[in-house]
Predict the structure.
Amino acid sequence: MAKRRRPSDTNSDLKRAKSAEEVDNSEFSDVLRQIKESENVENAKKYAKRLKQLLTDEGKIKKFVIVSSNIEELVGIFCKQTTVMGTSEYRSEIHQYSISILANCCFTIPKTGFLIRKAKSNFLDLSVRIFESTIANPDVKSSMCRLLANLCSNKDLVMTWISSNTIIFDQIALLLESSDLKIVKQCLRIFSMLANSSFTRENVVSGMSMILETSS
């Protein structure tokens, strides 16, 4: 006969679960703070890598995303690095880590895109800046394309936000001519996602037409 669990056992389990969640949130906050505030580049890179390693499974990503301030902090890191591109303050590795982690969060938790939009209303304009840049690392552009493709997997987000930024479609169309296959692959993913929405079909056709014209 199975042993009946006492109420005190259940309460203990809940307390342990809550304690573990608090530990995770504390570590997330500490790592984000170290990335932002560390004056040592290698140290900041170490913590950025650590954050990506922490967010390797769905459970951890959910715990990270559910605390909106985590996304706000990560978007802040992305915004800073995008803004200082081309200056001595720019850190390409930190930039790529921030984009890659956001992409992973959007892939696992589609609603993450709404949190990104809330954290930075001109996030897409900053994305265009990366695509237009002649000095941005190809890996940064590839990661940014992957992030955008994952954002486009959320149809509500496409219709209420992404589809209004027509410039971004033109930039993605131009990137299809890139010699970097990773970039091209992610650009094709973006157009594939967009094609699923009749609201954006005209923009997709326009972007593909642009490529045909420039290639002729």
Summary: The chain is about 75% helix and 0% strand. Residues 7-37 form the longest helix (31 residues). The domain at 16-215 is CATH 1.25.10.10 (Leucine-rich Repeat Variant). Confidence is low (pLDDT under 50) at residues 13-20.
